[in-house]
Amino acid sequence: MKFLKIMILAILFSASFTSCKSDKKEKPTDRNTVEKTSDNIIDVVAKDFTFEVDSVMPSGWSTFRMKNTGMMEHFFFMTKLPDSITFDDYVNGVGVAFSKAWNGYKEGEVDKAGAYGILGANLPEWYANAKLMGGIGLISGGQLGITTMRLDPGNYVMECYVKAENGQFHSELGMINPITVTDEATKMTPPKANVEISLGNESMEVIGEFVSGKNTIAVHFNEHPEVGLGNDIHLIKVEKNTKMEDVTQWMDWLNIGGLTSPGPAVFLGGAHEMPVGYTAYFNCTLEIGDYAFVAETPIGRFKTFTVE
Ligand SMILES: [Cu+2]
């Protein structure tokens, strides 16, 4: 997740969505119906502090729909494990490394650089070969998050690492699930977006117009920092009393009170980091008003916009 050299691989898509074939003789209109993309919806219920979700899901494009029925902010983040690495390896290796780093910092034993040092020293070697495969961004209690993304077959960990008031990661409290993504792929194709966002290490380019009502936002992951967590994006409603500096400080997991529920704004979803070359799509229904995109990485990134 954080502060780890991750090899930047240009992932070449070979998105081969075989169209449905039928031996039946069909009129052209029938054929069009058969070949139409069929959406694959995967429902997730986030509670304080569990996920309810199927543990087996198809590869290819799927739309994840997560209802946060808890009081706290939640997201889900997917990590694809290297072959031969198990869910328990992840919990006992990666989870423990982050807890050690955070506890050292929280107790005042080390500064931030020291905490990252603890993290680096404790993360298992295989973690360099894990793939950080995105997920639904932060969602406040009662909100619905919808994010569409493409998964490759393999074994994954789904987790939420927002912190509870006592400083424990939600993953330590139960928000961590093993997921198997099968070879069988969905026939879904990606949705059409009205806004395209390109995330670079130094830039966040937004093209298109937000509308009052339903928006589909494409998030293109164009770059990855040399070290640390990749670029990500989360949407908040900006109210009169929202202080963007408070929000960006809160987005840093290594701040005391950072990523700790309750958060400083209403979060409406988004897209977690994916490898370079991937695209995620998230849906949001916007009313007239002010909003902002905020990020965990890079720390301090935000961009405001208004829906008229
Ligand atoms: Cu959570």
Short characterization:
The chain has 308 residues and is an alpha+beta fold.
**Number of alpha- plus pi-helical segments:** 4
Radius of gyration over all CA atoms, rounded: 19 Å
Mean pLDDT: 89
User: Could you say which structural class the secondary elements and strand pairing correspond to?
Assistant: alpha+beta
List low-confidence stretches.
1-34
Helix content: 10-25%
Order of helices and strands: HEEEEHHEEEEEEEEHEEEE
How many DSSP-defined strands? 16
Molecules bound to protein = copper (II) ion
Distance between the termini: 37 Å
Topology:
Layout: H1 28-35, E1 41-47, E2 50-52, E3 56-68, E4 77-80, H2 87-106, H3 112-122, E5 131-132, E6 144-151, E7 154-159, E8 176-185, E9 195-199, E10 204-208, E11 213-221, E12 233-238, H4 244-250, E13 266-271, E14 279-286, E15 289-294, E16 302-307
Parallel strand pairs: 1-3, 3-8, 9-11
Antiparallel strand pairs: 1-2, 3-6, 4-5, 4-7, 6-14, 7-8, 9-10, 11-14, 12-13, 12-15, 15-16
Question: What would you say this structure looks like, in words?
Answer:
With 308 residues, the protein is an alpha+beta fold. The longest helix has 20 residues, at 87-106. The strands form 2 sheets. Strands 1, 2, 3, 4, 5, 6, 7, 8, 9, 10, 11 and 14 form a 12-stranded mixed sheet that branches. A 4-stranded antiparallel sheet has the order 13-12-15-16, with helices on one face. It is built from 4 helices and 16 strands. Strand 1 and strand 2 (50-52) form a beta hairpin. The two termini are 37 Å apart. The chain is globular. It binds copper (II) ion. Copper (II) ion binds next to loops.
